[in-house]
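User: Hello! I'm new to structural biology and keep hearing that structure can be predicted from sequence alone. Could you demonstrate with DUF4412 domain-containing protein? Please show me the input and the output so I can see what each looks like.

Assistant: Of course. The first part below is the input, the amino acid sequence of DUF4412 domain-containing protein. The second part is the output, the predicted structure written as tokens.
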Amino acid sequence: MNITNGRPGVLARGMAGIAVVALVGGAVSSGALAQQVSKPKPPARERSAPDERPPLPSSDFSVRGTVTPKGEATFAYRDGHLRVEIFHGAERIMVGLVDPEAHTIIVLPDLPGMGSVAFEMDLPPEFRFVSMPADSRRIGFDTVSTEPCEVWRGTDPDLGTPVQACFTVDGIPLRVQATTRQGLKVAFEATELERGPQDPAAFDVPEGVRVQRVPPSLQDMVPGGGLSP
């Protein structure tokens, strides 16, 4: 995983250890990388106390990764809001603007003839990780590439299916596992992470786009309205 604080970097693992290559135009030592990338360490206690909650994002970030069964996705966070982009191959098929407190998402399908309309709907089950279920508990620790994270698991209150996510201690989701309303198991795993400021305009509905509210009974008909393409 490429992990940076606002600047691109590449990690290459060699026979004798970890070599850092092409960071800000040149190689740097592992000590210099440690200064630029300060990874918060998880607490020593593995299981959470009953009143503990999953960590919330404490700063802006952008994370990109693979989606199972197919596709890729990016999540960008700024000031309490999340922007989601879903890709099928090189083609972007959807942008979603998530309001975690309202449990809603505005879907902007990136499809021909649909550039002037967006759909607001309840947050689909596969996005439950942005506001984990009330019964969520930390069940252990893991590492996604080189980034440590806490594994939290809860139960979707509507479907009764498990929701599991691995968060850094500063609240960044690196791995997500959930189930759609159609019963499809989907997963996301991060491959790139960048901590740093995000463009405020990316979290607003574009000018001239009309937002339509979609009732729950019709949400499955919204093109690109889920995590899996």
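User: So the tokens describe the shape?

Assistant: Right, they're a compact way of writing down the 3D structure. Reading them back into a model, for example: The CA atoms of residues 19 and 172 lie 25 Å apart.
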